[in-house]
Write a structure and sequence with these properties.
The chain has a 22-stranded antiparallel β-barrel. A 5-stranded mixed beta sheet has the order 1-7-8-5-6. The chain contains 5 helices and 38 strands. The radius of gyration is 25 Å and the shape is globular. By secondary structure, it is mainly β.
């Protein structure tokens, strides 16, 4: 089988650079447009996530929310997941095993949400998403709630998160940040942009941090370099290039064991992993895009992207407290390694003429994924609850290559925004995806091929009641895999993608004078063909189960007075299994899916005066079940944060960030029925920002 390879990317970048060098000096200067940061929800800004047509968020018949770089800085959010979980209805279910994971609209996990950068998606391998990780170098982050398959393919029923880079600008500017805080955290970042000759511009952003953490042996570190340039090859042809490298060494913490079924304050600082535990993620990315303005109405682009991800784990991951012996039993000595390479190309045409805005395209990608492990992950040890020697990783199972998959994806899509009148907009789109997976068992040489197909559609109407107020309704469909497509095994190869359908209606309004924005939405989502048990043979898994959710969401950002701003959101989710049989043909119908809270809410209040800004915020996450049987719960929690900033002059500012002001002991998520991952204790951080 012929595959796109990393050499294709290297050749494209080399040819593009050569073409750049050979351009005559008479070429006109390119105009590079950036997006200004702003407070609020971004309703008046063109969205890069809700549609490929660059419609204003107010005109998209879907729930789209935006976080600017300024907003994330004001709140002191250090990770993308910190920022995203301040948006409406998204809760954190991340762990060291899955990297980044969220719950949204009743659906949870990496197979139900997509994590993108500049609209580019690295497919999920073995349930793990790690890139992008932090907000430095990004202009804003957008969240599309509900099925996004018509734009991004399978695995998007819950939400789509898109981190949009700061674009190169011809006007020279530089920014830097340094911070120090609790857990001996030390971080720094620098970013700059400027002209590249007479016809282009560049941007570079670099960031690094390290910390000892708030638990024993909780050290972590992280670093990245993001580079991009844009250049006018001819008056009608632009070249954009991007080359990135990121390394992460996350905290090697898999949770704290429960004592008598509850969180134990005396174990808050303990880490039950071994002393030589390891988690490491390395991600590389290269992009080259040519854009040709064939006519005032027609634009054609071709984008070639290459991703490489290497991930490594060596940990003891399962802990149980034995109350009789007063010890912690440890097991699951896991050593894993992922090698993933993805090369993708997107050819796209856009038409903007008359009453229609139309985009159509073709995407193709090849992904090579290799999984190495020490299955069956045996090994066991016992330690005291406190004051113990963590020991070293000592598994009786050797690390061996497990399997490799070669996946080819093809997708064709089209979207049309038709302005029926000045007030009424019809948005319709369709997409067809085909995934061809070839898997080789590296232990016994067995192999198989599988093909998965997805069709998605969206039809929506947006009506402007006034220039500032719009109402909308939409129907959309999508799909999710029953397991990560790249790690499809023989048992799951016979299953189709699940099917999801959503009906949503809502209202969006920009208040007079831009003093505020608010949105409200109600929705219902149904997902069919989830894995269940065969009623005639409980030992056999079949497709035929279903789950659904319905809910309401409200989001608002308002200038209460010249010095006061309030940002708030709330979500109610009624999610359940409509049909599901598990082991022993036990019905879960009517139960709530794991890791889905009924209610969640965020609030942030800011006061600005004479170069000072004081802010405080609250985050609430309702009670969640950790299992489909709804037998064990994660308690609800509320945390409070604050920040105080002083603009020393027009170029320098100092900010104090305070986290978990009440020092709440709470669980962010569960790792098993015997251990929960705890949130950070109360801490502070001081940062200094420079802009020139």
């Amino acid at each position: 089988m012929n595959h796109l390879t990393p050499l294709a990317t290297a050749a494209a970048l080399l040819c593009a650079t050569t073409a750049l060098a050979q351009q005559p000096d008479t070429m006109p200067t390119v105009t590079i447009q950036g997006t200004a940061t702003q407070d609020g929800l971004g309703l008046t800004r063109a969205t890069a996530t809700g549609s490929r047509l660059n419609l204003n968020a107010q005109d998209v018949p879907a729930s789209v929310e935006s976080l600017s770089a300024a907003t994330m800085q004001e709140r002191g959010d250090l990770l993308i997941k910190d920022a995203v979980t301040r948006t409406t209805g998204l809760t954190d279910t991340s762990s060291p095993g899955n990297g980044v994971s969220f719950s949204s609209r009743g659906f949870n996990g990496s197979n139900s949400f997509a994590l993108l950068e500049n609209g580019q998606r690295l497919l999920v391998g073995s349930g793990t998403s790690t890139y992008p990780a932090d907000p430095w170098g990004y202009d804003y982050i957008e969240v599309l709630r509900g099925p996004g398959s018509v734009v991004y393919g399978s695995g998007t029923t819950g939400a789509t998160i898109n981190a949009v880079r700061k674009a190169p600008q011809r006007t020279t500017s530089w920014e830097a940040m340094a911070g120090y805080g609790g857990g001996k955290a030390l971080r720094g970042g620098v970013g700059g942009t400027g002209a590249l000759g007479d016809k282009g511009a560049f941007r570079i952003d670099a960031y690094a941090d390290r910390a000892d953490g708030f638990i024993n042996r909780g050290d972590s570190r992280h670093g990245k370099v993001l580079t991009s340039l844009t250049y006018a090859l001819t008056p009608d042809v632009d070249l954009d290039m991007q080359l990135d490298h990121m390394e992460q060494k996350p905290q090697r913490y898999f949770g704290t064991p429960l004592v008598n079924g509850a969180l134990a304050p005396q174990l808050r600082d303990e880490n039950y992993n071994v002393a030589d535990a390891d988690i490491a993620y390395v991600d590389d990315k290269a992009v080259a895009r040519l854009t040709w303005r064939a006519s005032p109405a027609l634009t054609i682009s071709d984008e070639l992207a290459y991703f490489k991800a290497r991930r490594n784990w060596r940990n003891v991951e399962y802990y149980v407290y034995d109350a009789v012996a007063n010890v912690v039993d440890r097991s699951d000595y896991l050593a894993l390694h992922h090698d993933q390479e993805q090369t993708a190309n997107r050819l796209e045409a856009r038409w903007n003429g008359g009453a229609h805005k139309v985009v159509g395209g073709w995407e193709v990608a090849t992904i090579n994924f290799k999984h190495t492990n020490n299955s069956p992950y045996r090994g066991a040890s016992t330690v005291a609850p406190t004051g113990f020697d963590p020991g070293l990783f000592d598994s009786p199972d050797p690390i061996r290559p497990g399997f490799a998959t070669d996946t080819t994806t093809n997708a064709a899509y089209v979207e049309d925004a038709y302005a029926i009148s000045e007030r009424l907009l019809l948005l319709a789109g369709a997409r067809h995806d085909r995934y061809r997976v070839s898997r080789l068992n590296l232990q016994d040489g067995s192999a198989f091929d599988a093909t998965l197909i997805s069709n998605a559609a969206r039809v929506g109407l947006t009506y402007r009641l006034t220039p500032q107020t719009s109402v909308y309704g939409q129907f959309s469909s999508g799909s999710d895999p029953v397991t990560s497509i790249l790690s499809l095994n023989l048992a799951n190869a016979k299953f189709d993608l699940t099917r999801s359908r959503q009906v949503e209606t809502g209202i969006k309004q920009v208040l007079a004078g831009g003093k505020g924005e608010w949105t409200a939405a109600i929705y219902k989502i149904t997902k069919d063909d989830i894995i269940t048990r065969d009623p005639a043979n409980p030992s056999v898994s079949i497709q035929g189960g279903s789950q659904s959710s319905r809910g309401a969401e409200v989001t608002a950002s308002a200038q209460l007075a010249p010095a006061w701003r309030l940002d708030a959101n709330a979500a109610y989710t009624d999610a359940k299994f409509d049909e599901l049989l598990e082991g022993g043909n036990v019905s879960r119908a009517g139960n709530r899916p794991a890791d889905v809270p009924k209610t969640s809410a965020n609030l942030w209040l800011s006061y600005r005066v004479n170069g000072w800004r004081a802010s405080t915020g609250a985050r609430y996450v309702g009670e969640r079940f950790i299992d489909n049987g709804n037998t064990q719960t994660l308690p609800a929690y509320t945390t409070f944060d604050a920040s105080l900033a002083w603009a020393v002059d027009r170029n320098v500012s100092v900010q104090l960030n305070l986290r978990n002001l009440s020092d709440r002991l709470y669980a962010v998520t569960s790792y098993s029925d015997s251990q929960y991952l705890l949130g950070d204790r109360r801490h502070a951080e001081v940062t200094v920002q420079w802009r020139y």
